[in-house]
Structures are given as structure tokens and as C-alpha cells.
Task: structure prediction
Amino acid sequence: MSRPILKWYGFAGHHICGARCQFHLSTSINGKFLVSTVGLFVPDPLRAPNKMEPVMSGWHFETVVFEMDGDDENGDPKITNWDAIETEGYNDSLQAERNHQVICEKYSEAAA
Result:
């Protein structure tokens, strides 16, 4: 099996409030799947910088997988379907980081 082509993006790959998430990982797998993990959502960083809220019901971190078709002309992921293929939730950053990697490996096999 050939090695997957991974591309890391420096921004949150999903979530309407992703810009207010202090934790984010976004990885393209062979330009076919985007694995996006966000967490530590601070809804009002100026007035309440220490107040965090869950990103999804009961979870402070989540990983979501989307189908994509490479990058657009700006180098951003071109999502073809915003319906999540897979969603996982966590309550600590170590688990979120580890499972982001596990899910990337899982979809690397599917994208081969």
C-alpha cells in the first residue's frame, strides 16, 4: 500500500463557531476526506475568556469526517458533502488528539 498524502490546515475545518475554538486540527487524506477536530469552545473570548461551552451535546471536543474533492483555488478544502461521514466526541484534549490520528489512519486506508 502506498503512503497517504496528508495535508494539514491551520484552521478549524468545521463548526459554525470554529474560529472561537482554541483547539483545532484539520487534515486532508489524499484530497478525498477531511478529518476535522475542534474543541475548547469559548463563545465570548473578550468578555468571558475562561468560560468554555461544549461543541456538541455533552462533549468539549469533536471530530468529524467529510468527503472532499481536493483543494479550491485558495488552497482550502473543497467539501463535496457537509453531511458528516463519522462524528466522535471527547472531553479531553489528549483523547481528541489521539483519536484524530486514529481516524486519519482509518480513512487513509479507505482513500488508498
About this structure: The chain is about 15% helix and 40% strand. Residues 71 and 78 are 5 Å apart (CA to CA). The first strand starts at residue 6 and ends at 9.
